[in-house]
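Sanity check. The docking grid for flavin-adenine dinucleotide depends on where the pocket ends up, so I'm generating a full predicted complex first rather than guessing from homology. Inputs follow.
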Amino acid sequence: MQLELTEEQKLVQQAARGFAQDRLAPIAAQIDRDEKIPAEILDGLAELGLFGVNVPESLGGAEAGVVAYSLAMQEIAAACASTAVTMAVTNMVGEVIAHFGTPEQRQRYNPRLCGGELRAGSFALSEAEAGSDPGAMRTTATRDGDDWVIDGSKQWITSGVFAGVFVVWARTGEEGTKGISCFLVDGDAPGLTVGKHEEKMGLRGSSTTALHFEGVRVPASALLGQLGGGFKIAMMALDGGRIGIASQALGIGEAALREGISYAKDRRTFGEPIANRQAIQWMIADSRTELDAARLLTMRAACMKESGVRFSRQAAMAKAYASESAWKVCDRALQSHGGYGYTKEYAVERYIRDVRVTRIYEGTSEIQRIVISRDLLR
Ligand SMILES: Cc1cc2nc3c(=O)[nH]c(=O)nc-3n(C[C@H](O)[C@H](O)[C@H](O)COP(=O)(O)OP(=O)(O)OC[C@H]3O[C@@H](n4cnc5c(N)ncnc54)[C@H](O)[C@@H]3O)c2cc1C
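Predicted complex below; grid placement will be based on this.
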């Protein structure tokens, strides 16, 4: 068993850390307030190869692997979780196209996605009545001559407002999961409009919107993968995506623990730093232990994906455990700040708002437990 990072993984980690600490952390509170990620931040991610960490070099990616992707995600999330989710979805879209796309689709989208030209990629699976159960989706794609015509609405779409390419799931056949196909749709496609902007408790710098498709016409060549094979693509993409969200949760948790430790050393009550109190020490010890356990689960899932073996269960375990642990870590850090933790003066207030969604998106904790137990009971 080898727990050491490779030189390349360390380089990616250091590059992401440098960018996160120097350029992102100082403006993270402003991103949260303004509800917008500055263009230069997106450009910076692209320049560092962070929009296609696990995408082949021949397609414009960094080809640094899944472990490197997880490490980079942890660093970016520790500075700004909103930027991290934008990066996560763009990487997921890039990987889906690189994996399932035709040579033409790859050449058309991957280099521009990795290079930042398309700003971001967007993953349009969920609908108002189909979140945990995407098989219930109602958006349709109907064949019309050589084209497909997409009609319907999507809900909760990250980066929907500015993405240059959307991976869109739509029903092309029978009810349920078998009648779903997947399409690549350009951000400026006629008939595609951005709907309601969600007012979220956290991740406020990341745009989350509804999308409306009214007679959106795409050529037959926009079909990604097999006709009727969309559900399988979604499940495979989400398996990998869950490693990204586990890493995002870890990054936020690390930032919260760091801040909790620093505050505990400074804050004095009854004539002593609160760090001298066992109650606070135990919070710190539990947080460190849980984050380390979450990191090991996440790294295991990343290594398994990288080596090409089945990793669905391990990714679900990493995602459920990391997101729930990071939530507890943020809560303890806030508690150790006393009243100040409940104000915008300290970043723990943002961390706890941001971390909460990691238990919800890309499959809730309940859905992860279904994935884990179903695999064990097969
Ligand atoms: C900020 C944000 C960004 C998002 N970004 C995207 C995106 O970019 N693209 C995209 O496609 N989607 C996105 N989503 C959607 C997200 O993946 C869904 O919200 C999530 O899958 C849950 O679906 P739902 O909200 O419909 O909840 P529901 O499916 O209605 O679930 C409600 C509750 O019931 C539980 N539940 C449901 N079914 C079961 C079951 N069988 N057994 C036990 N419990 C169950 C759930 O765990 C949950 O607690 C985003 C969501 C948020 C909040």
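Relevant for the grid: The two ends are 28 Å apart (CA to CA).
Also worth noting: The longest strand covers residues 147-158.
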